[in-house]
Amino acid sequence: MIGKKYVLIISFLILGCNSVPVNQKINKQKEGKWVYVYSQDSIEYKSV
């Protein structure tokens, strides 16, 4: 009985941890976080 509780808790933790999609398009629209890489004065920058 105790083992089943642990399996349920662990499965909820694994399934509940979703990361934010990065640079993803759905229906030609931007979804989630977008990371832009640009260079200025020969230095590369990343913006979120």
How would you describe this structure to a colleague?
This protein is α+β, with helices and mostly antiparallel strands and 48 residues long. Helices cover 31% and strands 33% of the residues. The protein is built from one helix and four strands; from the N terminus they run H-E-E-E-E. Strands 1-2 form a two-stranded antiparallel ribbon. The protein is elongated.
Concise overview:
The protein has 48 residues and is α+β, with helices and mostly antiparallel strands. Helix content is 31%, strand content 33%. The protein has a two-stranded antiparallel sheet. A two-stranded antiparallel sheet has the order 3-4.
Distance between the termini: 46 Å
Secondary structure: helix percent: 25-40%
Anisotropy-based shape: elongated
Radius of gyration: 19 Å
H/E series:
HEEEE
Report the major sheet: 2 strands, antiparallel
Proportion of strand residues: 25-35%
Mean pLDDT: 76
Question: In terms of per-residue confidence, which ranges show pLDDT below 50 for 5 or more consecutive residues?
Answer: none
Structural class comes to alpha+beta
Number of strands: 4
Features of the shown structure:
48 residues, two-stranded antiparallel sheet
